[in-house]
Amino acid sequence: MASKLHTELDMILLITPSNRGEECATAIEVATGRTVRATTSFQQAIECLRSEEYSVVIIDECLLDADPEGGEVLVQRIETAMPVYANCAVNGIPRIVRLVKAALRRRQGEEASAQKAARLALQSQIREPLTAIILNCELALKGDRLPASAEERIRTVDGLARELGSRLDLEQSAAGKSDYPVLRH
Prior knowledge:
The protein is α/β, with parallel strands linked by helices.
């Protein structure tokens, strides 16, 4: 599923009434290695946005000047795509390509930051319950003799909790004999 999502978000939408729209789309495809869909109106672009997700949406400022209300509707629908505003009548294709590349870099940086924040939030939420599970397993194993089957189950739970801690980028404390997961700094 991750590769499918990555493929969908590799698409770029170009909205321009310029007669050089297809030429610009081709140049962007060559420069970025991503599929570019070119449309000539906001209505066509909204239809594209209903059926696909895009990493970047390039909006011709001339079209915005001609149809500001259509531009507002479009901007509300672009969701997570990075908007790029360019005047296709004034800016050359190389400049538009540079703007798109810069938007793609910004998007990658924002995605990396969002992923890191989500990972840290998850670690923070799971750390205490995971530590409690491991501690309770240790206490149960140190207590009075347990039936072999109960001891085996507790060891399994302990091992799974430690594996989960490891997968969440938690490390074991080096203090004494305790093996409580702590976040790496």
